[in-house]
Amino acid sequence: MRTILVILLLSTTLFANEFIKKADSLRTHRADNFNPETLIADSTNVNPAIDLLKKAVETTEGKEQEEAVWKLLRTYYFKGYYCTDNSDMKQLIYDQGKELGEKFLEKYPESPGINVWTAILWGVWGEEHGIVAAATSGVAGKMRDYCEKAIEVDPEWSNGAAYRILGRLHFKAPNIPFVLGWPDNDDSIENLEKARKIDPENLFIKQYLAETLYDEGEKEKAFKLMDEVLSAKEVNQGIVEDAWIKHKSKLLLDEWKKD
User: What is the pLDDT of residues 122-174, one digit of tens each?
Assistant: First the structure.
């Protein structure tokens, strides 16, 4: 009987690993049919990746399940952020993602991947639902706590992603005395510089750091970083992701040049 149970467990794990591998393969095609004019990605390869990762989550435990969860969260984010411009659809996808993340953080509280991607999904959820909903739900505090936990466990996970998100959070979250008094540009710069040491060519880090520096009056450094983002020739974060970050960087740079 024990032998049968072991065989069944091994078989389940193998199936789950296959689901994850197939989802990883589909991820490499996430830019297929991407429209650079509308900046909308095709979800043809994204939707089946979500289905495969759901199966992996449902059919395994431990390390494999943890991996499947954070990869599913990452795929929810990609679908919501890049595959639609419909706010209602974005909200629905982000709701699914953050609820999944919260559920599995109870099971895997030490997972840097689940902490980071749950923080990210709370962030975009807050953007879609607005300032009041974000404040009522304590979005900024959740994001900070999840990023700090990921840093505590593995500061270099995914090229220092937690430092990047925490640095961005310190810049974007409103500093409200007696309510939310901790967001600070100095902390934004400190965390983004830590992320940059780990992943020096990351376009997101450069753009985020440029925004904070510009806000602090260090315009020369900010312009230099933005120029590096826009002049990057090789694919950095992905075809879709790079197109988005360059688009946003150009808009910001155009605004800054008017000052």
Answer: 999 999 988 767 877 899 999 999 999 999 999 999 999 999 999 999 999 85
Tokens of 216: 């602090």
Contact residues for 113 (Cβ-Cβ < 8 A; gap 6+): 66, 67, 69, 70, 71, 73, 150, 157, 158
Report the C-alpha dihedral over residues 78, 83, 88, 89, rounded to 10 degrees.
Answer: -80
Q: Is the C-alpha dihedral spanning 149, 153, 159, 163 positive or negative? A: positive
For residue 30, give every residue at least 6 positions away whose Cβ sits within 8 Å of its Cβ, in sequence order, or none: 41, 45, 46, 78, 238, 240
Write out pLDDT tens, residues 24-41: 999 999 999 999 999 999
DSSP 128-176: HH-HHHHHHTTHHHHHHHHHHHHHHH-TTTTTTHHHHHHHHHHHHS--B
